[in-house]
Each structure stands twice: as C-alpha cells, then as structure tokens.
Amino acid sequence: MSMNLTLKVWRQAGATAAGDFETYQVPGVNEDMSFLEMLDVVNEQLIGDGREPIAFDHDCREGICGSCGVVINGRPHGPLQGVTTCQLHMRNYRDGDTIVVEPWRAAAFPVIRDLVVDRSAFDRIIQAGGYITAPTGGARDANLTLIPKAVADVAMDAAACIGCGACVAACPNSAANLFTGAKITALNVLPQGQPERWARVAAMVDRMEDQFGSCTNYTECEAVCPAGISVNVIAKMNRDYLKSRFKDRRSLIRQADVADEA
Amino acid sequence: MLTGSSPARPGGPMTPARTRPRPHTWIIEFYSSAIGKKAVMAVTGLLLLGFVLVHMLGNLKLYYGEPEHLNEYGHYLRTIGEPILPHSGFLWIMRGGLILAFVLHIHAAVSLTMMNRRARPVGYKGGRTYSAANYAARTMRWSGIIVGLYLLFHLADLTWGTANPDFEHGEPYQNMIASFERVPVAIVYVVANLLLGIHIFHGAWSLFQSLGWSNPRFNVWRRYFAVAFAAVIVVGNVSFPLAVLFGVVD
User: Fold this and answer.
1) Looking only at Cα atoms, what is the longest distance across chain B?
2) Which pLDDT does position B23 carry in this prediction?
C-alpha cells in the first residue's frame, strides 16, 4: 500500500530568519516507513530538485536517544501514545492526509534551522545538579547498597526520561517540570542521592525557572511523553523543593557560601 | 559540589523566562520561585475553599423558613470572640485573612502568567491539539477573572448594599430575597457560581500537585475530592437564587 500525502513543513533558514510553512506533495509513501524515513524520502526529492533539504534532528531511530521530535498536527511526536517521532509509522495515516510539521516552540528552545531546536537548556539543568558527587571507583557488588524494589522502580521509571523535550513542547507554558522532576526523582529517591538531595533540587529548579515557564498542572506533558514519565515526579520535585526552602536551609546557605568562595 | 548559585552558563543563545538577581531574605527567595508561588496559590486556594464552603453552609439557613435564623446567624458572626475581641473583631480578622489570601492568589497568578508568556513568545503556527489539558485547566485565568469581578458585585450587592436598592443593614435574609428576585441578578449569581465550580474543579485537584501531596495510594481520591467539592459548592450556591426566583423561599 502506498499513499499520497500533503506535507506542510516549517522552514526557517536560521535562528534569526523568519520562518513559514512550505507545502510539499509526497506521492508513493510506503505505510511501513517511519515518519523520519518519510522525511528522508522528501529530502531525497528536494536534493534531486536542487533545493535545500528539510533539517530535522535524529540519531538512534529506535526511541531511546531523545534526538528526534517534531510537533505533528499540533501534538509532539504525533498521534500515538508512548512513542517518539522515529517510532511513528506511516500506517497511522491515510491516503490524502495533510500533515503539519512544526518544531518545538519555547523561548528556551530556539530554532536553529527548520525543525531543529537547541535543547542545551536541558543540559544546563543537568549541569546544575543532575549527578552525584562521589568517587565511584570500580564497579561495586550489585547488592552492596540494599534498595527496596518499590523505590528502585520509582527511580528507574523516572530515569526512563530520554530528554527529548516533548513535555516542554506540549506544555502551554513551555514548562520543563516533567523533565526536571524526572531527573531529580531518579536521584533523590535513592540512597546515593541523599547527601546532595536538598541542594540538588534547589539548584536544578532554579536553573529550570531561569529558562522555562511554570507548571499549571495541565498534565499535557505526561500525555505526550514517549517514556511514560508520570506527573507524580513533578509532585515529588515540588515537595523536595518546598522542603529544601525550609528544612536544612542554613546548611544549604553555608554550602553555597563555600562554593562561592572557592 | 552542588550549589544554589548560578555559575556562567555555557552554550548557545537563550532568552531567559525569568530575570532576577536573587534576593537573600528566605521568604522573598521562596516566593520569587515559581514553585514557591504555586505553593502560595495552593495554600491560599485551600483557605478560600474553606471560606467558600463555610459561606455556603451558613447560607443554608435560608431554608429554615423564618428570616430570624439567618439574620441571627449573621449577627452571631460579629459577636464571636467577645468580650476578648471587640464587636466584629473576629469578622475583621477573617476578612483580613481573606483579603490577604486573595491578593497573594491573584498576584502569584498574574506573575506566573507573565512568566509563562515569556517562556513561549512564539506559539504553534499550525495550531495545536490537547490530549489531557481539560477545559477547566485551560480557562483558569478567565474563570478566575470573572469570579473575581463577580465577587466585587456580590460585595456591592449583599455586603455594602450599593447594588441593591432594598438593602437593609443587618437583615441578610431579606436582602437575599430582594436581590435574587431580580431575574438578571439571579442569572449573574448562577453563571458566576458555575464558573466558580469550574475553577474549583481544577484548583482543588491542582493544589495537591503544587504542594507535592502525591501518593499512589490516594492519588485517585484527589480528583474525586475536587469533583465533590466543586459539586457541593455549585449545587448549594446555585440553589439560593433559584429557590428565591421560583418562590421556594420568600
């Protein structure tokens, strides 16, 4: 089965250039193609015609790297639940469909070109505290630090975040609370994350709020997340953040002072 | 070492959603964060929920039949705490708390809305769809503004009496009857309380998230609580103008 599609793609020559939609007729789309493979076919055609191909981010093409991601007909990663754009197949569309493709929209994710946005804002949140400070040495025995199964599950579910940015793209406020909540929760529920728990949440939330909007609990992020991250991680982050502002406040300030002097 | 201070940012161009030199007084620092503001909105929202519930329950005395019940209750509210507090002293403490709660709730909402606008200067040109965000959540700003304006009218109507020609101070029963017998006024009350219900439907759920009250054992009850609270408030408050309008009480 092959189908003919009309594609409206956001084209923007550079970060400061004005962008607009361009319409392409795409004949003979195979239903077994992924969405990105369909874009590859369009690009072959454009290159053949001597025109600029559509720029889009992609890497692993199996849903684990978090590189790909565009807004398809108004929904990040397209109509399916729990998949990235590369895992969306053209069999989900019908002959004659019109598909609108747009980049993530957020002040913190400036467009670099066409559908490619700069997501270093996420990296800056991780740099603020998405790690533990400990000499790890060689690999230790798996059960040296005992962690209840339920706790390990919460940490693993949160760590499933691939950092694609769909949560920010879907949020009407361009908030990054699902991403940041997931990254904080993955560390803050585990024993290894405890020593820096309160400093971590304060630093990561501060960096997040410097760049993104605020959470108004639409839960739109959870609905489009390809990794199935729950908004429970946002509640967890809120709780830890509020605690960090009261509990252990003085020691946090001292810690920050020491770092400023160093 | 993790710190709360901001080292130089590496990386590309970026428009900050929030600009700030961080103040050092912890309460200001707390309120300057979006999560802190949301916590303030949740706590003030809870206080206002409590007020709205007690307000509605008190008004149920309209159904006793004789005006004295409601009027005596209204008078009693001014005598709470006497003689330690002066006459109306308790009432003014409550009013002060409510005004403070309103001011904080509205200030936080306005400030967060501005932050969110800055965070998305360019919207989706090709339109967008919603998968989870419900009508109540998406219209919080509008329902909040309309309910706020309605509140001013409500005060003018039944507290100050300026919007109610037949207003008699100290006779809430008669004032309610006189007010709700006017059809347009009754409609305003019904519509505003439906919007209040929509506002509560999202707010009474959202506050659990904002305060981090999340637990797999009771999370499903958070939604039930919001639905039940909104329903109780709407049914109770809407019944008063309708009961007067259709002559159930007079």
Assistant:
1) 73
2) 53
- Return d(Cα A118, Cα A111) in angstroms, integer: 6
- pLDDT value for B16: 52
* pLDDT at residue B10, rounded to an integer: 43
- Coil, strand, or helix at residue A183? helix
Nearest Cα residue to B109 out of B38, B17, B208:
B38
A211/B20 Cα distance (integer angstroms) = 12
Smallest CA–CA separation between B49 and chain A, in Å? 18
| CA quadruple B211, A239, A184, A203: dihedral sign | positive
CA nearest A119 in B: which residue? B12
Per the CB < 8 Å rule, is A71 touching B126? Answer: yes
CB contact under 8 A, B120 and A75: no
Q: Which two tokens stand for residue B69?
A: 């019940």
Would you state the pLDDT for residue A135?
78
Chain pair A-B, CB pairs under 8 angstroms: 214
Task: Please name each of the domains of chain A with its CATH number.
Answer: 2-112 (3.10.20.30), 120-261 (1.10.1060.10)
Token readout for A6 is: 């009309």
Helix, strand, coil percent content, chain A, rounded in steps of 5: 40, 15, 45
The two structure tokens encoding residue A149: 């199964």
- Taking CB atoms and an 8 Å cutoff, what residues of chain B touch A107? 14-17, 118-121
Phi, psi of A6 (to 5 degrees): -110, 125
Segments of chain A scoring below 50 in pLDDT: 262
Using an 8 Å Cβ cutoff, are A231 and B209 in contact?
A: yes
Per-residue pLDDT, A133: 87
Contacts with A, B 218-237, CB within 8 Å: 219
Residue pair B226/B218 in contact (Cβ under 8 Å)? The answer is: no
Buried b (16+ CB within 10 A) or exposed e, A229-242: bbbbbbbbbbbbbb
Q: Give me the pLDDT at residue B11, please.
A: 41
Residue A260: the pLDDT is 54
User: Which residue spans within A71-128 are E strands per DSSP?
Assistant: 71-72, 75-76, 98-102, 111-113, 116-117
Residues 6+ apart with CB under 8 A from B223: B205
Per CB-CB distance under 8 Å, the chain B contacts of A214 are: 34-35, 37-38, 112, 115-116, 119
Is the peptide bond preceding residue B83 cis, with omega within 30 degrees of 0?
yes
Q: Are strands A2-11 and A98-102 parallel, antiparallel or unpaired?
A: parallel
- Interatomic CA distance for residues A127 and A118, integer angstroms: 16
Which residue positions in chain B have pLDDT lower than 70? 1-24
What pLDDT, on a 0 to 100 scale, did the predictor assign at position B1? 45
Residue A9 pairs in a beta bridge with: A22, A101
Contact A100, A8 (CB under 8 A): yes
